[in-house]
Write a structure and sequence with these properties.
mainly alpha; ABC transporter involved in vitamin B12 uptake, BtuC; 3 strands; disordered C terminus; 3-stranded antiparallel β-sheet
């Protein structure tokens, strides 16, 4: 695109194939600083002290062992769901159903824990993991099959299936699975010890953390070091080139969506088995939706997803801390959205550059 500034100078917007290393580091940092500044301005106009709010959030997260461990606990489902949806996004498959797939994983894991309580832990926990992955993957396949064979848009399908899964869990905990000894609260019976994931010491950090870290390494290796990962990247960047090269796009759509849903389902299993020890309504405050932001901020890099998930876990814990000062918890959602806006907007500076082109004739047309 060319913009005429004077009779003989033109400002041209050019796409940059290889951004400089300085810009790669500087742009995200500047984007985060601008996001904090904009939110700080909003706090100031609302009569709040931005420095006090940010200071209280920071001290609440890193100022105590409890804050740090809770940050890790909150980051586990964000990490797993971020890895799941990030894999689908890598192939330009817009899996917006991470929330519902998490719920389906929690439902399946709970069913195994409730109906097979006598199994030993070394059998019960792996079966719960497998069931959760199958349930989450199945929900993703409900959108993948129409997308692969009929070209149906997967965004609407996965988004609507979220409500199906959430309402299904609500039906169970308010109805047939409600604990008869739970004083009429919508909760299932608590899990037996054999169905609970081990924790690290006296903290609430459970084995789900290892699931996330291991999957991040596996996904990184698969995406960047294997033939299948190469196919996934090529199909995402250019379906026409992939089709010309003989890659099976239909099969890869099904496999990628199955794997994406399975990992999100594993997040549900980790929540009910590692943290809640029972199924209950509202078990997720929107982890599947926040994971979309995390995946994009991490630029779909599995290792970076782990780090960004930890950052967002800290934002959630910090949001709970500042509520004691009269600040609404919705400020965390506003901060997350502002971060996404500025970081994605900063991508323009990495992908494009401005260049002056002097010496053009006054009669040249501008496009």
């Amino acid at each position: 695109m060319k913009l005429r500034l004077t009779g003989r100078n033109i400002l041209q917007v050019e796409k940059t194939m290889t951004p400089s290393p300085v810009m790669v580091v500087l742009v995200p940092v500047a984007s985060i600083v601008l996001a904090l500044a904009v939110c700080g301005l909003f706090f100031y106009l609302s009569g709040k002290d931005p420095g006090y709010i940010y200071g209280k959030m920071f001290s609440g997260v890193v100022g105590s062992t409890y804050g740090l461990t809770e940050t890790v606990v909150k980051s586990i489902p964000l990490m797993l769901c971020g890895l799941g949806v990030g894999l689908a996004f890598r192939m330009q498959l817009w899996n917006i159903g991470g929330e519902g797939q998490l719920y389906m994983g929690a439902f399946a894991a709970t069913g195994i824990a409730l109906f097979f309580p006598d199994w030993p832990a070394w059998v019960l926990l792996p079966v719960m993991v497998i069931a959760a992955c199958l349930a989450g993957g199945f929900l993703a396949l409900l959108a993948a099959v129409p997308r692969a064979y009929l070209g149906v848009n997967e965004i609407i399908m996965t988004l609507m299936l979220n409500y199906v899964a959430i309402l299904w869990v609500d039906y169970l905990v308010y109805g047939p699975w409600r604990d008869p000894q739970g004083f009429n609260f919508p909760l299932t019976a608590p899990f037996r010890e054999e169905a609970v994931l081990p924790t690290f010491g006296d903290t609430r950090i459970h084995m789900g953390l290892l699931f996330g870290l291991l999957l991040a390494v596996v996904f990184y290796f698969v995406i960047y070091r294997t033939k299948w990962g190469f196919e996934v990247r090529v199909i995402g960047e250019s379906p026409e080139a992939a089709r010309y090269a003989g890659m099976n796009i239909t099969r890869n759509i099904l496999l990628v969506m199955l794997a994406s849903g399975a990992v999100c389902g594993l997040a549900g299993m980790a929540e009910v088995s590692g943290l809640m020890h029972r199924l209950q309504p509202g078990l997720s405050p929107g982890y599947g939706y926040t994971a979309i932001i995390i995946a994009w901020l991490a630029k779909l890099n599995p290792i970076a997803i782990v780090l960004v998930a930890f950052l967002f876990g800290g934002l959630q814990v910090g949001g709970y801390v500042v509520q004691t000062s009269g600040i609404p918890s919705t400020m965390v959602a506003m901060l997350q959205g502002t971060l996404l806006f500025f970081v994605l907007g900063g991508e323009i500076l990495l992908r494009y550059r401005l260049r002056f082109m002097p010496g053009m004739r006054a009669g040249d047309e501008s496009a």
